[in-house]
Each structure stands twice: as C-alpha cells, then as structure tokens.
C-alpha cells in the first residue's frame, strides 16, 4: 500500500513538473531567441543595463508585495481545504485590493528614491529618469503577482502553465522589434511592454476563477489582511534580504569590474537557471500548496520533501551535465563571442545549482509550517554569507570569483537548511535521495575532470555522451518511481494527439 501511494505521489509530482516544466521549456526556447537578439543588438552594455535595472527594481517590488502573495497562498489553501467558499472569496478580494495599495506605494517610493538609487548603483544620476519611468512596473508586478498567487493557491496548474507561456510568446516579438529599431534605447520600453503583457495574460486566466460574490468595506479588508500580513511581512523581509543582497552583489561587480562585467555575469546567471528553473518553478507552483495541506503531519511532510528532491535531481541531471561540459558552445550559441569570459562563471553557477536543487525542497518546510522566525533568520544568515563570499571571490579571482561565491553559498545553505528542517520536522534524506545526490555530485565531478583534461572538440563529444547516459539513467529512474514506462506513456500521449502511428504506417505501406 505504501509503495502504491509513493508511486502515485511521485507521479503527481512528475505530472505537475511536466506541466510547469513543459511551459518553462517553451519559455526557455522563447528566451533563447530573445537573449540572442539582446546579445546581438544590445551587446554586453545593454545586457548589463537590464540586469542593473532589475536588481534595483527587485527589492522595491518585494517591498511592494508585503509578502501577501506567499502568505495569501497559504491562507487560500487552508480555506479551500475546509471548503469554505465565502472565506475563499473574501481572501481573493483582500489579496486583489492589497496588491493595488502596496503596488502604488512601491511605485511612489521608487520615484522618490530614483536619484539616490541611480547614484549608488551607477556612480551618477544619469539613470534616475529611467528608474522613475520603470516605477510603473512595480505596480504592474504587484497586481500580476497577486493574480498569479490566486491561480497557484487554487492549484489551477494548467492555467498557471498556460499563463507562463502566453506572456513571453506575445511579448518577445514586440521586444525584438524594439531592439532592432532602437538598439540600447529599447531597454526601458521593452521592460514596460513585457510587464504590461504579463499582467494582461495573468488577468485573463485569473478572471476565469468563479467564486461567490462578496461585499467588503475597506475596514473589513484591513481586518482580513492582518493575518496575511503577520506572516507576509516576515516573508517579505526575508525575501527583501535576498533581493537586496543580489543588488549589492551587482553593485560590487559594476563598481569593481564595470557594467560589461555585470552583463557577463547576467548572461551566465540566465543560462545556468534556464534548465533548472522549470523544476524550481514546479516546486513553487504545486509542491508548496501540497506541503501546506499536510504541514501538521511531519512524516508526510518529510516524505513529500524527499520525493520532490528525488524527482528534481533526476530531471535536472542531464541538463546539468550538458551545461558543465558544453558551456563554451552553449554561451556562443545563445550569446556571442564577446561573452566568452562568462563561461567559467556559468560552470561554477551550474555546480551551485545542484546544491540549490537539494536545498530548496527543505526550504519549503518553513513556509508550509508558517515558521516565520526560522525562515527570516535562515535567509538573513545565508544572505550575509553570500555577500561575504562575493566580496572575497571578486577580490581574489575577478569575475570568476562571482561564480565561485554562488557555489560556496549553496554548500553552506544545504547544511543550514538541513539543520533547520531536522529541528522542525525531524527531516532526514531517505536512502534513495542520498543515492541520487551522490550520483549527481559524482557525475558533476567527472564532467569537471573532463573539462580540465580534454580539448574543446573532445570535451564536446564526451560531454554529449555523458549527458546522453545520464538522460537514460533519469528516464529509467522516473519510470521506476512512477511505476510506468515514461517513454511509452509519452509516445501514447503524442500518438493520441497527432495520430502519428497511423501516419507512419501509411508512409511505410504506401
């Protein structure tokens, strides 16, 4: 009975990961096209500007959100678990109203701070007007985030996946056209256009959710919002620490190595996160609500965390090995030869992503249990450590040191998250999880040894073989965990949609 339940749970994780992952895979393809055009038409300077603006906007966007998106998900999950339709409707209205209020306050704050932020980030006030214009994205992002949280909390995974694809699909051609005609001047209108289109698409799917019609005064809204804010403000502060740390790290790079170096770092960061991003996205989309529902049952929580870790590692392993061994080819393909210095950064960040995959499921334990104190202090300590590692890394190794700092951070964070999870729920990795962690690390070490000993051509050949072997291993493990042949199931699904088998037979016997 336990084995069947495990197979079913692994299958559910894989299904949600496939939906979110499939949308993310399409997003990656779209992003690849956008990144290539950005590299060609904007160059390292334009990529660096986009990265710098985003690091300024990040902390303020988090401040504007007040953590309500995350705490609201938790409250909506609990209300839907009790089947309380009136409470669901009240929570939905509260989240929407709060998003407008906090988004407006965040936009006004950015306008007020545009000159000092520009001075601190770039060393001059030339970009103050651009930051003021981009304040509109704070309001847009707050509303869009609230609507996305509603879709996530009610576990409308298909809508969440469709929304994630449609926004980039519409906005990318517009962004490309702006880059072609305006060059570096396209950065501001491009960021605004992408933000507005994302809001429209999210609103389109959120409006399909049918709930009871409720009437609430603003005083009642404030009463309803207070429980969300108690947890949300703590989560906001913790998340703000991470965004502020990322901002300070970019400032370190810009001040010590220049804006173009920040463009190199941004390119490596984007590429290292493309493949793993859909797995982490699946954790946030479906895993967090599932974990919240069983947060009082420690055995169930630990089982779900282990299963999410296993599926995440199995799905990520082939892409991690491919990125490690084929980094120069990947960088050249998605960017240009000007970005070659970012290859070493990309490899160090990819190694760090292995540990990020291991630690992230444990981090959700704190969120699911509403352990706001533990979450805040864990984030504070890890972000202070990350700043220290970045400062030392850049001083000792230049741009490569930024990648080394990312890897070192997650070596530390894995042990910190494990200790906290052990205290909260008695968590420990299962034997199968430990075996997969070991397999992934050993594969990565072999890949690194290949990089250091072989010329580029042989490196690419051996890297392709290693990625193919790990891909076969991943398929076998997924089939074993879910109790079904993944390739056969995928073929049957594709055949039912496209009628491929009949077409092949007609072609053969024509």
Highlighted features:
510 residues; mainly alpha
Fold and architecture overview:
With 510 residues, the protein is an all-alpha fold. It has a domain of 237 residues. The protein has 19 helices and no strands. The termini are far apart. The N terminus is likely disordered.
pLDDT averaged residue by residue: 78
**End-to-end distance, in Å?**
50 Å
Parts with pLDDT < 50 across at least 5 consecutive residues: 1-8
The Rg value, from CA coordinates, equals 23 Å
For the sheet with most strands, the description reads: none
| Helix and strand element order | HHHHHHHHHHHHHHHHHHH
Provide the β-strand percentage band: under 5%
Give a quick precis of the structure.
The protein is mainly α. 88% of the residues lie in helices and 0% in strands. The chain has a domain at 258-494.
Give the secondary structure arrangement, pairings included.
Elements: H1 2-41, H2 43-65, H3 68-81, H4 85-122, H5 128-133, H6 135-153, H7 157-182, H8 187-206, H9 218-257, H10 259-293, H11 298-325, H12 327-334, H13 343-368, H14 372-397, H15 399-425, H16 431-453, H17 456-482, H18 486-498, H19 500-508
């Amino acid at each position: 009975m336990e084995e069947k339940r495990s197979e079913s749970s692994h299958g559910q994780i894989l299904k949600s990961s496939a939906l979110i992952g499939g949308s993310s895979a399409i997003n990656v393809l779209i992003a690849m096209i956008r990144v290539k055009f950005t590299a060609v038409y904007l160059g390292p300077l334009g990529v660096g500007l986009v990265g710098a603006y985003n690091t300024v906007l990040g902390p303020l966007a988090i401040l504007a959100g007040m953590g309500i998106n995350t705490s609201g998900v938790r409250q909506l999950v609990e209300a839907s678990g009790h089947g309380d339709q009136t409470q669901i409707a009240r929570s939905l209205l509260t989240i929407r109203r709060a998003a407008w209020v906090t988004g407006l306050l965040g936009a006004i704050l950015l306008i007020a701070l545009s000159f000092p932020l520009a001075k601190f980030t770039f060393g001059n006030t030339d970009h103050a007007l651009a930051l003021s214009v981009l304040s509109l994205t704070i309001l847009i992002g707050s509303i869009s985030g609230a609507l996305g949280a509603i879709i996530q909390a009610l576990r409308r995974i298909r809508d969440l996946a469709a929304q994630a694809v449609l926004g980039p699909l519409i906005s990318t051609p517009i962004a490309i056209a702006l880059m072609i005609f305006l060059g570096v001047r396209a950065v501001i209108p491009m960021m605004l256009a992408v933000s507005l289109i994302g809001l429209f698409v999210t609103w389109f799917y959120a409006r399909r959710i049918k709930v009871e019609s409720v009437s609430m005064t603003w005083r009642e809204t404030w009463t309803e919002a207070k429980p969300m804010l108690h947890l949300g403000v703590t989560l906001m502060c913790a998340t703000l620490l991470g965004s502020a740390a990322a901002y300070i790290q970019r400032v370190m790079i810009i001040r010590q190595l220049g804006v173009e170096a920040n463009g190199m770092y941004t390119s490596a960061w984007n590429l290292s996160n493309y493949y793993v991003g859909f797995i982490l996205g699946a954790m946030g989309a479906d895993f967090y609500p599932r974990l919240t529902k069983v947060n009082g049952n420690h055995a169930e929580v630990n089982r779900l965390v282990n299963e999410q870790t296993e599926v995440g590692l199995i799905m990520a392993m082939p892409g991690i090995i491919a990125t490690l061994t084929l980094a120069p080819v990947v960088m050249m393909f998605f960017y240009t030869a000007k970005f070659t210095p970012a290859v070493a950064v990309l490899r160090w960040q990819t190694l760090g992503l292995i540990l990020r995959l291991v630690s992230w499921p444990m981090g959700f334990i704190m969120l699911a249990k509403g352990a706001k104190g533990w979450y805040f202090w864990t984030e504070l300590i890890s972000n202070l450590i990350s700043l220290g590692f970045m400062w030392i890394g850049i001083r000792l190794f230049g741009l490569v040191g930024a990648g080394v700092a990312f890897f070192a951070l997650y070596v530390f964070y894995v042990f910190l998250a494990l200790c906290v999870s052990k205290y909260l729920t008695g968590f420990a990795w299962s034997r199968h999880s430990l075996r997969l962690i070991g397999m992934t690390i050993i594969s990565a070490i072999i890949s690194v040894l290949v990089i250091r000993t072989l010329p580029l051509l042989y490196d690419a050949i051996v890297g392709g073989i290693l990625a193919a072997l790990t891909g076969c291993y991943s398929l076998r493990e997924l089939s074993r965990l879910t109790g079904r042949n993944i390739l056969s199931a995928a073929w049957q699904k594709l055949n039912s949609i496209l009628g491929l088998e009949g077409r092949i037979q007609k072609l053969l016997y024509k």
